Amino acid sequence: MPVIKTDRESIIQKSIHLFKVHGYSGTTMAAIGEACGLIKGSIYHHFKSKEVLALECLKYIHEYFEKEIFSIAHREPLSSKEKLILFTKKVEKYFLNSEGGCLLGNFTLEVSNNNPLLKNEIVAYFKAWEESIYEILRPEIGKKEAKEKAIQIVAATQGSIMLMRLYENSKPFKIQNKVIIDLLP
Q: What is the Cα–Cα distance from 46 to 165, expressed in whole angstroms?
């Protein structure tokens, strides 16, 4: 295999795919190097450890969601219903075009109990997701119900992503997304 130069973002993107498909434990630095066309040691020039690389992958996805999806909660002049539809459709597009489910959901199950560094980023991501849904729903259904629905939506969405991956069928995910959209008249 010829060794090539690559940048941090390319390594992160390829690592995200490997982590999603094979998990944290099942993804080796050698596999990441191979996917990037690098020798294993070259990865360490960019990231001091697998844990640091995994954290950067989580941050990369979190930043993407903040910019492309969570920000929808603050878009004017969209109505709450329009925001909810757009938000849900963008989440759907991301996960339907992404092999391996949700990296943050996968890492939650695999490593969050043993790795406070990764857990903190995962918590921040899911809290931001909840807060975005809360901001969309609050004007229509009030603070208390919006808070409860936001938690339910994130939990149900993650469950439907898990079932979609398990069944190799997008139906559970699409059903959940319809339920979300139907929350508001």
A: 31
